[in-house]
Specification:
There is one protein chain. With 489 residues, the protein is mostly helical. The protein has one domain: MFS general substrate transporter like domains (Growth Hormone, Chain: A, Up-down Bundle), CATH 1.20.1250. Helix content is 74%, strand content 2%. It has helices at residues 2-9, 12-20, 24-46, 52-59, 63-91, 93-113, 117-145, 151-180, 193-199, 202-212, 219-224, 228-239, 244-253, 283-297, 300-313, 318-342, 348-371, 385-403, 406-416, 423-451, 453-475, and strands at 186-188, 191-192, 374-375, 381-382. The strands form two sheets. A two-stranded antiparallel sheet has the order 1-2. A two-stranded antiparallel ribbon has the order 3-4. Strand 3 (374-375) and strand 4 (381-382) form a beta hairpin. The longest helix has 30 residues, at 151-180. It is globular.
Length: 489
């Protein structure tokens, strides 16, 4: 990229064009690098889907133990998201993404080599730290370098990268399991196929680290950290020379001059800097937490983490269940493409509202289908052909509505809705809430599967989808086309 910039600077005609218009190709390239973090987020979240049986056999774990093995990463995600948001205000967005890339590599290797449940959990928690950091920093970085007019589309690319990561993980799991005969069978070099499912991730994680070395730091962070010269240089590359001073002044005006960002900035204060009520948190922070939590309470990650187990529980074979995961991944990518075309046209709030309504209906249909399941002689659930088809179609329709709305729009809004001064802290708290809810849903699903069954579990997710409709209508405000410096808390 530096060589390209040098050749541009050596050509007066091209240099003049660069002064008059933002170099969008450069913006797209650096945003694409950030989205590799989203890809790894998706891959690391989805790879566990095909390894559950292998984990049960390798570590001889019961239902609760398996649930913790699967959900353990999410503890790291919650911690990673919280501290990444805070540390990014100290060290920078790029530095946190570099650290997450290293953790992705270590976690992928360790998860595959683990010889005990405790060792596996340790490496999955490391991976969770990486996923948590990438989940908040990738969309935040994109929001801070992208022009307002196309910010939604570029941030949606990150969600597509997440889904692509899930999709590639599903394909990789399916191919490895099919080649070996089963996820628990030996595949290559004496190691079971489920271990190789984790090791595949090392390749994109290493690529992410190398690519991050080539992109600049966020100009908003550089202003916050009192590095005006570096901020000016990055702004020149992003907006063209003619708008550098204008953007620099706007960013400076949106931050507090007397201190670095801190968690107490999330509290409501009056014009004199005094708290408005004891410990009263800004409304925008509660909205961010609500967006983060509702995205998980509708149960989407049950499909991503337990898809293979879920479909096998109602009579599908392991191979068919893994193939259904691939279909769901393809549906998700298609939904993200539609969102990318609409998010900067119709806005974030309409997408969220349509998604909530669609999810409530489709989740209700899935729950209804599971109420008709019978139990065969082996204790496994069985659906009739008609109800099996209804459950399959409704579940994929649910995945479509989620990934056409709450999947990308939630991360887009979290990355842009907070004012510059509190973006890192707001993302920290919202990210912690999101991954905490994710952990609760993932950890409780195996227990609910045994206790109240699939119909009961999906009935609960349906209720939260209905509640999210009211949340969007009354509390969510549109951010389409609003400059980051104009966001109000």
């Amino acid at each position: 990229m530096q060589a390209i910039e040098n050749s541009v600077e050596g050509n007066p005609g091209i240099a003049q064009i660069q002064q008059d218009a933002p170099p969008l190709l450069f913006v797209i390239l650096i945003c694409s690098v950030a989205t590799i973090g989203g890809f790894l987020f998706g891959f690391d979240s989805g790879v566990i889907n095909g390894t559950v049986t292998g984990l049960q056999q390798a570590f001889n774990s019961n239902t609760a133990g398996t649930g913790f093995n699967v959900a353990s990463m999410l503890l790291g995600c919650a911690v990673g998201a919280f501290f990444a948001g805070r540390l990014a205000d100290r060290w920078g967005r790029k530095q946190l993404l570099l650290i997450s890339a290293v953790l992705f590599v270590v976690s992928a290797w360790g998860s595959g080599i683990a010889a005990s449940s405790a060792e596996f959990v340790f490496y999955r928690v490391l991976g969770g730290l990486a996923v948590g950091a990438a989940s908040v920093m990738s969309p935040a970085y994109i929001s801070e370098v992208a022009p307002a007019a196309m910010r939604g589309r570029l941030t949606t690319v990150n969600q597509m990268a997440i889904i692509s990561g899930l999709f590639v993980a599903f394909i990789s799991n399916y191919w490895l399991a099919r080649t070996a005969g089963s996820a628990v069978n030996e595949w290559w070099m004496g190691f079971s196929a489920w271990r190789w499912m984790f090791w595949v991730e090392i390749i994109p994680a290493a690529l992410f680290f190398v690519a991050l070395l080539l992109i600049p730091e966020s100009p908003r962070y550089l202003v916050l950290s009192r590095q005006p010269e570096k901020a000016t240089e990055v702004l020149r590359k992003l907006y063209g020379a003619s708008r550098v001073q204008e953007k620099l002044d706007q960013i400076r005006a949106s931050v507090v001059a007397d201190h670095q960002p801190k968690l107490s900035d999330l509290l409501d204060k009056n014009a004199k800097g005094r708290l408005m009520g004891l410990g009263k948190i800004r409304k925008i922070v509660w909205v961010g937490i609500g967006l983060a939590v509702f995205q998980q309470l509708v149960g989407i990650n049950v499909v991503f983490y337990y898809g293979a187990v879920l479909w096998q529980a109602v009579g599908f074979s392991e191979a068919d269940a893994l193939l259904i995961n691939i279909i769901s991944g393809g549906v998700s990518i298609g939904a993200c493409l539609i969102t990318m075309a609409l998010v900067d046209r119709i806005g974030r709030k309409p997408l969220l509202l349509v998604g909530s309504i669609g999810m409530a209906i489709t989740l209700g249909l899935v729950a209804f289908a599971f109420t008709t399941a019978s139990v065969d002689a082996s204790g496994s659930l069985q659906l009739s052909n008609e109800m099996g088809l209804l459950a399959l179609v409704a579940a994929n329709a649910y995945v479509f509505f989620f990934n056409g709305s709450w999947g990308p729009a939630m991360w887009t809004m979290l990355g842009e809705m907070f004012p510059n001064q509190i973006r890192g802290s707001g993302l920290a708290v919202s990210g912690l809430a999101q991954w905490g809810a994710n952990f609760a849903i993932t950890m409780t699903f195996p227990v609910m599967l045994v206790g109240i069954g699939l119909a009961g579990a999906y009935g609960i997710y349906t209720l939260f989808a209905v509640l999210s409709i009211a949340f969007v209508i009354y509390l969510v405000h549109e951010t389409k086309g609003v400059e980051l410096e104009d966001m109000r808390g």
